[in-house]
Design a protein that fits this description.
76 residues, alpha+beta, GMP Synthetase, Chain A, domain 3, 3-stranded mixed sheet, 3 helices, 42% helix, 26% strand, globular, RNA binding, chaperone, cytoplasm, RNA-binding protein KhpA
């Protein structure tokens, strides 16, 4: 799942080398903190949060199949 998030984020931004992802693994929940260049934050979030919302929906669906929860946070 981590690779999926990184690949999606890198495909969306202008500075793909600045994308980094931190995984915080809990018992039933995994938190991903996504960082990127400040110029690219708007591209990751999208208009009204639609882009990051779509990414969260996809991740939640994949995680539910494994009986887990996933949270994706875009961090400045």
């Amino acid at each position: 799942m981590k690779d999926l998030i990184e690949n999606l984020a890198r495909a969306l931004v202008d500075h793909p080398d600045d994308v980094s992802l931190t995984e915080i693994d809990g018992e039933k929940t995994v938190i991903y903190e996504l960082r990127c260049n400040k110029e690219d934050i708007g591209k990751l979030i999208g208009r009204n949060g639609k882009t990051v919302g779509a990414m969260r929906t996809l991740l939640s669906t994949l995680a539910a199949k494994k009986g887990r929860r996933v949270m994706l946070e875009v961090v400045e």
